[in-house]
Amino acid sequence: MFINLDVDVVLSGLVADIGAERWQTDQWNCATFHAYFADMNCEKYGAEPYEHLRNWGFEQRQLKSATERYGPEVVRKVCEQAFAQYRPSCEYPQLNAGFVLSYMAASLLPRILTERDAVKRRFEDAARGRPDTDELNAHL
User: Fold this and answer.
1) How far, in Å, CA of 87 to CA of 107, rounded?
2) Predicted model pTM
3) Does a cis peptide bond (omega within 30 degrees of 0) precede residue 49?
4) Strands (E), 16-118
5) Percentage helix, strand, coil, to 5, in the chain?
6) Per-residue pLDDT of the chain (140 residues; tens, 9 = 90+)
7) Which of 37, 91, 107, 73 is nearest to 12 (CA)?
């Protein structure tokens, strides 16, 4: 779902309407991620209104591409870790989705994808009745 906005708006006011925090992460889309970023910037840094990178269309394409490629759960974990790592400055007082997906995701994704694949592998092994390889390695 794309929202075409010609003017800057304060997205934190949309959080209540969109209800990003009450939705399951697998239901998130561009609008919920934008609302999440606006809310987190306001909460963590007191930064309002949300400032996008380049323009809304660019960020929406970035979010759509990332959610289609990795899924909304992985993208949300990237965003959460980016907020945990980011330190605002006078020049860059807030974190936006375009910056996270363009520059920070490259360093965060490998670890998140490895963790996701390990959990998936453990689940599949348990379903097949195989022992957990991490437990076996710990005993050796």
Assistant:
1) 16
2) 0.72
3) yes
4) none
5) 70, 0, 30
6) 334 333 333 333 444 444 455 567 888 999 899 999 999 999 999 888 888 888 889 999 999 999 999 999 999 999 999 999 999 999 999 999 999 999 999 999 999 999 999 988 888 888 787 666 566 566 55
7) 37
